[in-house]
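Notes taken during the Thursday session

The instructor put the following on the board and asked us to keep it in front of us for the whole hour. The protein is Beta-galactosidase-like. We were told not to look anything up and to reason only from what is written here. First, the residues (162 in total):
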Amino acid sequence: MALLGFGKILLLLLLFGHSLGAPGSFSVDYQKDCFRKDGEEFRFISGSIHYSRIPRVYWKDRLLKMYMAGLNAIQTYIPWNYHEESPGQYSFSGERDMEYFLQLAQDIGLMVILRPGPYICGEWDMGGLPAWLLNKKDIVLRSSDPDYIAAVDKWVGSRQDK
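Then, after some discussion, the predicted structure tokens were revealed:
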């Protein structure tokens, strides 16, 4: 089911900036009502930045400015319709190179809270859902409709090997 796969991906990506390259731990301390990172109390100081709205040439500059402003994390959406404009045709290079953007954030020292959707809202056309979904006459978006779930499964599966 798509939601289980998405949950795993989201958890892995939430900790992306923290976990790559170095062992560590991240947990919720329910007794003290706080996060713990590597055994120490931890607080997210995060801001939003949407790689899909900023030319790639400015990504590093904007991320550095966020880091220098005292942020330790960023959050960003993955707009489905930005990366799959036509069914089965995925674009993750150039201005759409999400992996490069995430690597830049990690190199700078920022953790990433990734918001993959499939529906992101984000003041984005159709909430990030691709318009081609509407080519199916009776599809019901953002539901358990089998056609919608099948499309979501393909979208989620397109990045599972990364």
